Amino acid sequence: MVSKPRVALGMLVLAALAGGLLALLISLEAGAFWAKTLPLVFLAGGAAFAQSLGLFNKKPKD
Q1: Mutual orientation of helices 4-27 and 32-53 as an angle, nearest 10°?
Q2: Which of 27, 30, 40, 57 is spaced 20 to 30 Å from 21 by Cα?
Q3: Tens digit of pLDDT for each residue in 16-28?
Q4: Residue ranges per domain, the chain?
């Protein structure tokens, strides 16, 4: 079972980090390809990594 508040909070944190990455890429004057691609890859990769660690799963109640 997936915990909706954990998913929302996790994706909010990942979105904030992706926004910071985008700001860093803009300040470094990276190309448009990198500014578009890297934040999306970071979001997808971070979500997949968090899911594989089981961070979004509810703990069973005793």
Answers
A1: 150
A2: 57
A3: 999 998 999 899 9
A4: 4-53
